[in-house]
Design brief:
Helix 7 crosses helix 9. Strands 1, 2, 3, 4, 6, 7, 8, 9 and 10 form a 9-stranded mixed sheet that branches. A 3-stranded antiparallel sheet has the order 5-12-11, with no helix packed on it. The protein contains 11 helices and 12 strands. With about 325 residues, the chain is an alpha+beta fold. The longest helix is centred in the last third of the chain and has 20 residues. Helices cover about 30% and strands about 20% of the residues. Strand 11 and strand 12 form a beta hairpin. The chain has 2 domains: about 180 residues, no CATH class; about 120 residues, no CATH class.
């Protein structure tokens, strides 16, 4: 098997950065996310390949948080650097797979998304020690075998990382750093069990009949409407879209939005389809656990645990799933 020493990580990132924009998990000041390796400042930043999940998911590498695109350039994109997401975990790869599914249906921004996706390579970091808020295995995600990765690295401890090629893109990346890899037999760590698990059996059907259940009011009353759960979620893809046209020219503007905000659900004339905060809170979970599964056959959640770790009201998705499973609908 191919192995590289931990002392070679920065050399590998420098090498890969020669032909691509490489994004890595970093602590940057009080925050964390996937930032460009070219912007790394050793006096201010920390590379954290051993951290399970940084605060900002890597979806913002492929979907810009705010972007204006000239209308007459769509479909004729200027050449851009290849992108490499280095150190991404299985849950965040699953988040990107959901975005692939959504944008494959077409619509505004689909062509630009596909362009960026085709020019993005993924180097995954397998997880052997899940955190207290991780539950990706309950969502059908394999933390040890990240589906859709071009390369998988595996932390073996003091012996370094295994480098495992999975695709033609991965083969090209391997060629770039071949002299930094050595053939060596090393032992893989023993995976630890998940401390957090949820059972989805029956939830996707049951939640669709719970529109007026008191649990929505119970949790929405405590909800701060901060929308951190949506911006921090690797699978949320709500966008605010605006456009202006002058004959064949014009522009489109898009930015990440949140279903937690009242303005997100305004229709013509300024009328809100979900006026009450309870309705907006409920819609988020109905979308993830009922509407999306109806269309695609699986819940819109990758089990990364960010919403559990960050929610000031303790209303992470696993709590809602448990409440739904335990709810008694016999008298309703």
């Amino acid at each position: 098997m191919k192995v590289f020493r931990k002392a070679e990580v920065e050399k590998i990132l420098d090498r890969l950065s020669g032909d691509a924009d490489v994004y890595v998990p970093m602590l940057r000041g009080p925050g964390s996310g996937f930032f460009s390796w070219q912007t790394y400042d050793e006096d201010f930043d920390d590379l954290v390949l051993d951290r399970l999940n940084v605060f900002l998911p890597p979806k913002q590498i492929i979907i810009s948080p705010a972007e204006k695109t000239s209308f007459n350039t769509i479909g004729d994109f200027e050449p851009v650097n290849e992108k490499i997401i280095f150190g991404i975990r299985s849950c965040d790869i699953q988040g990107i797979a959901f975005l692939d599914e959504f944008f494959s249906a077409g619509g505004s921004g689909a062509e630009l998304y596909k362009w960026r996706r085709d020019h993005t390579a993924i180097i995954a970091n397998a997880c052997y020690h899940p955190g207290s808020s991780c539950f990706c295995s309950s969502m059908g995600v394999d933390p040890l075998d990240p589906a859709g990765a071009d390369v998988i690295i595996r932390d073996t401890g003091s012996t370094g990382y295994i480098w495992e090629t999975r695709s033609p893109k991965g083969e090209r990346l391997t060629e770039q750093i071949a002299d930094l890899l050595e053939e060596k037999e090393v032992s893989l760590p023993d995976p630890l069990p998940f401390s957090l698990k949820v059972d989805l059996d029956g939830v996707m059907e049951k939640i669709g009949a719970m529109n007026d259940h008191p649990l929505w009011e119970k949790y929405s009353e405590a909800c701060q409407r901060c929308a951190l759960c949506t911006y921090d979620c690797p699978t949320c893809y709500c966008l605010d879209l605006q456009a202006a046209h002058w004959h064949e020219a014009g522009y489109e503007f898009s930015c990440l939005e949140s279903c937690a905000y009242k303005n997100k659900v305004l229709s013509a004339g300024g009328v809100s389809s979900r006026e009450a905060a309870t309705e907006r809170f409920r819609h988020r979970f109905l979308h993830k656990l009922h509407f999306y599964p109806q269309r695609y056959g699986k819940p819109l959640c990758a089990g990364c645990g960010r919403c559990i770790a960050i929610c000031p009201s303790d209303a992470g998705i696993t709590r809602i799933i448990t409440e739904v499973r335990e709810a008694d609908l016999s008298s309703r």
